[in-house]
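Notes from hallway chat w/ T.B., transcribed later so I don't forget. T.B. wanted the structure written out for a chain they're using in a teaching module, and asked if we could keep both sequence and structure tokens in one place. Agreed to drop them here.
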Amino acid sequence: MPHLTVMTYNIRTGIGMDGVRDLERIAGVIRESAAVVVGLQEVDKGTTRSDGVDQTKVLAGLLGMDYVFGPAYPHRGGFFGPAVLTVPILEKRLITLPHKETNESRMAVWVRVQWEGREIIVINTHLEHADPEDRARQGAALAEIVAEAVQSAPTMLMGDLNARPSEVAVFTGIKNYLRDAYELAMERARGNGKADDLGEGFTFDSVRPYKRIDYVWLDPRLDLADEEGAFRIVPNQASDHMPLVVRVRTVQ
């Protein structure tokens, strides 16, 4: 299978650090990355703040991609949630994650796609931002979703998990099945004497990055491509997050 380029990107409903909402600018960032699987977070559909636009549909049209939106949270006349843009989707699921009634509802978008004859499952999500207890419950739920998915096909999990790597309660279950692409990249960088070049993987915020909360996690049957820049963060201020781009290869 040729290398597969994937991206996770919290687009803040298309609002850049200049305060301008510009979906064409977001599409340009995605296009330049050459990603064919894109997990988006903070996407609007039909909200008054976004002029009633179905943002996933607009971006998919600009990029010529298939898409699915997860209406996680009712907001201002529409919905707010994660989405996936990708090659043609074979199967899709929208999975509501556990949350307290006082918190925003959260959702995982699950898709099965085919790339060069190989089926892959992609799970994209955006976890609770303010309540660590809810975030831990959502991480445990994701681990169960992943445990089922890996029985069917090589699986990757991506998204804004709103948790730094030290937040063990979110990641413990996930680590039983998947590997953090940044950690894979760091192992390689250390082996090549280039750990300093990789940096700390910070994706937020896009002006003065100070924390790593956006992730791509890979099934052991998937690995980083054997090339320079297989893991990279794309500096730009089209949102308050910077997109994370990973080049993936199969190993089985």
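Follow-up for T.B.: The mean pLDDT is 96. Might be a good example for the class.
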